[in-house]
Model the fold of this input.
Amino acid sequence: MTVQANPASYPRREQPAMTNAKTLFPVCGRPARLPEYLVQEALRIAAPYGSADEADVERDLWCHLQVHGDGDHFALVLDLDGVATGAIWTRWAGGTPVAALDIRPDCSFIDPDSRDACCEFALHPGVHSHRLTAMPVASS
Done:
C-alpha cells in the first residue's frame, strides 16, 4: 500500500514577497595569467574550427563562476567558431598557475524571461551567467 503525502497538512511557511527583480550573485573573479605557450596551444586547438586570431585569446583571466569555496577556478580562453562547437576554457586551483586547456561544450540554459543564453560551459557549478554580477572594469 502506498501512502501519498498531503501537502495541505504540512506546516505553513511565510513566503518572501515576490518581485520582478532576480537575485544576482557575485562572480568569483579570481585572476590568473595565461602563459604564452598556452596562447599558442589555444590557437592550435582552434585551427580546425576556423581561423583564430592571436588577439582573440584571453590572457588576463578571471574565474567566471559564482563565488565558491575551495576548488578549481574556470576562465574562458577562446570561443570556437561554428555552431555548437563550445569554447576553450582553462582551470586552476588556488595559487597554482594555469597549466592546461580544455574544449568544453556551451551551457544550453536559456533564461526564460530575458531569452539570454548562459555564457558558461555545460554542467558548470553555481548559477547561470545571467544571474551573476558583472566583473568590475579596471581603470587604467
